[in-house]
Amino acid sequence: MSEAPEDLGAFLDDAWQLIGRGTVDSKSAANRPALATVGAEGPAVRTVVLRAADREAGTLDIHSHRLAGKVAELRAEPRAALHVWDAKRSLQMRLAGAATVHVEDAAARAAFDALPEHGRTIYAVSPEPAAEIDAPSAPAFDADPWAGFALIRLRLERIELLHLGRERHSRAVYERSSGWRGRWLVP
Ligand SMILES: Cc1cc2nc3c(=O)[nH]c(=O)nc-3n(C[C@H](O)[C@H](O)[C@H](O)COP(=O)(O)O)c2cc1C
């Protein structure tokens, strides 16, 4: 999308297309969004991989280690946001909602089972994430990966899009509470 969007529905369709591509194409801008959480000491942000998206349900999936800081933060305060900047399309997406952490349930199992063997290794890290170690190579990957795996499912409440066009900038917001009906905003 390099043309300025004219239609709220088409603008949202384009965004979901990009999100969908992000789940399958590691080169897509939406593949590595920044995840923002509310930590005890204030905002926290980090890169994650977008693993799955369900437009019908309005959910986005991320995988993590169950002992990661973000998981503890989301358990304490589920409100979270993802940020994507697609330079090729001149499009910023701000995706906000509430996250549920799935551990040892059917949703986590389905996500874990869909991972290739090598994709599971990271969840076998030992000792746990953020533990202090003597050298960067010190951790082993000999724990049970399933015991470390967590699925983070973000249920979107709000999608905000900003397109930077040559002629004009276009900004729109879509909310679950209004059935994802969009509104144009001043950029
Ligand atoms: C390109 C890239 C992709 C990443 N993907 C993930 C991911 O999908 N899940 C994850 O937990 N951490 C991922 N990380 C690591 C996080 O950015 C972060 O450093 C780590 O998870 C610890 O964050 P936390 O202490 O806030 O939980 C990724 C980092 C980079 C640079």
Automatic annotation (TrEMBL):
Pfam families: Pyridox_oxase_2. GO terms for molecular function: FMN binding. Gene3D superfamilies: Electron Transport, Fmn-binding Protein, Chain A (2.30.110.10). InterPro entries: Pyridox_Oxase_Alr4036_FMN-bd (IPR024624), Split_barrel_FMN-bd (IPR012349). Signal peptide: none annotated. Residues 26-102 form the Pyridoxamine 5'-phosphate oxidase Alr4036 family FMN-binding domain. This is Pyridoxamine 5'-phosphate oxidase family protein. It comes from Pontivivens ytuae. The lineage of its organism: Bacteria, Pseudomonadati, Pseudomonadota, Alphaproteobacteria, Rhodobacterales.
